[in-house]
Amino acid sequence: MKIAVLGAGSWGTTVASLVAPRHRTVLWARNPAVAEAINEEHANPEYLPGFRLPPELTATASLDEAVGDADLLVVGVPTSGFRNVLEEVSKWIRPWVPVVSLSKGLERGSHLRMTEVIKDVVPGHPVAALSGPNIAYEIMSGKAAAAVIATEDLEVARAIQKVVTRGLFRVYLNDDVIGCEMGGALKNVIAIASGIGEGLGVGDNTRAAVMSRGLAELTRLGVAMGAQPTTFAGLAGMGDLIATCMSPHSRNRAVGEQLGRGRKLDDILAEMHMVAEGVKTASVALELAERHGLDLPICTMIDKVVKGEIEPSGAYWGLTPAGHEDDPG
């Protein structure tokens, strides 16, 4: 089969590298220079420096060339450009081709999850989300990892599972799409909080408390939206949260750490090649929480920090539990 992977960032390139040795795989890069490097040097120095990519993997800057005859479409572009890319894709995608989202975030304004955006823009296609504790650098280094493929149709999930599973990268099935996507989106906000703690030097006990209470927050909101609570104890919930909050390769954690050290958000983001989704997800999460009558203290504090309303050092005491709630959330 032919697989089209849209988005040549670190995670899109990693997924394309996993499937390319067994399937004809084309990676779409917005920047023609990135596509040229992949084709000629078998490398993506912009997003995955130091790694050699499979020689079978090809890249293109043309959406038509990538999508036109694809049997499976995998979308790994940032959430801010997700809809626009899909609108272009709709001109060339063949009927009934499954679409898998790699993106972990929520659409601003509509509050839609990425699989909902797919259904809105290209209706009639089987839709799934790939989520879990997946640090691209570690997977490219050959370290073991696991993910979840989430879709309501488990037959489709099994087919995608066979395509994506390779070597030490193991994929499990889950029919709780809401839970998997909400876990993947909201953990980025908690990772910023964890990073701020690292930058401030608050200690592991405090950061562990923030992560635990953060898991309670994202579970409350996810369940209110129709997710299964057990999902948040699995790979797409707690697993993804731990990896993103702890890994030095986590973009959202890195943003928080720099904020904790006193740097300005605009300066931090200007230096980054990739998107830290948690910066924009915090406000969307709060809008959803208001709709469901929920209080999300950690998301509230992070939203105020990224908007410049409060300083990270002053906000961090508000991230820890006040003692008036039971545990778990």
Structural class: alpha/beta
Total number of helices = 15
Q: Write down the secondary-structure element order.
A: EHEHEHEHEHEHEHEHHHHHHHH
Kindly estimate the percentage of residues that lie in beta strands according to DSSP: 5-15%
Radius of gyration: 19 Å
What is the global morphology? globular
In total, the number of domains comes to 2
Q: Largest sheet at a glance?
A: 8 strands, mixed
Structural notes for this entry:
The chain is an alpha/beta fold. It has 2 domains: 2-175, Rossmann fold, CATH 3.40.50; 185-319, N-(1-d-carboxylethyl)-l-norvaline Dehydrogenase, domain 2. The protein has helices spanning 10-19, 32-41, 63-67, 79-89, 114-121, 136-140, 154-164, 177-200, 204-224, 235-246, 251-260, 265-271, 278-291, 297-306, 312-315, and strands at 2-6, 24-28, 58-60, 72-75, 99-101, 127-131, 145-150, 169-174. Strands 3-2-1-4-5-6-7-8 form an 8-stranded mixed β-sheet, with helices on both faces. Helix 4 (79-89) packs parallel to helix 5 (114-121), helix 8 (177-200) packs parallel to helix 11 (251-260) and helix 13 crosses helix 14. The protein is globular, with a radius of gyration of 19 Å.
Quick rundown:
With 329 residues, the protein is α/β, with parallel strands linked by helices. It has 2 domains: 174 residues, Rossmann fold (3-Layer(aba) Sandwich), CATH 3.40.50.720; 135 residues, N-(1-d-carboxylethyl)-l-norvaline Dehydrogenase, domain 2 (Orthogonal Bundle), CATH 1.10.1040. The chain is 49% helix and 11% strand.
